[in-house]
């Protein structure tokens, strides 16, 4: 029983530290997720993560008219 409690304590502490770290990260203005990459983009003063950048802003040259 004691061992189980220890485990839970460790997990709870780790989870709280992780939550803290995530709270300090910039949040993507498109998907709302904390940006965990080493870099992000700012478009019209909105933070954008790489996957949203690709989803929302990438244009294929073949579609250009
Ligand atoms: Zn995003």
Tell me what the structure shows.
It contains two helices and two strands. It has one domain (7-64): Cysteine Rich Protein (Ribbon), CATH 2.10.110. Helices cover 48% and strands 9% of the residues. The model has no long low-confidence stretch (mean pLDDT 90). Strands 1-2 form a two-stranded antiparallel ribbon. It is mostly helical and 65 residues long. The radius of gyration is 19 Å and the shape is elongated. The longest helix has 23 residues, at 2-24. The chain has helices at 2-24, 50-57; strands at residues 41-43, 46-48. Bound molecules: zinc ion. Residues 28, 30-31, 33, 49, 51-52 line the site of zinc ion (ZN). The site of zinc ion has 7 residues, from helix 2.
Summary keywords:
two-stranded antiparallel sheet, 48% helix, 65 residues, Cysteine Rich Protein, binds zinc ion, mainly alpha, single chain
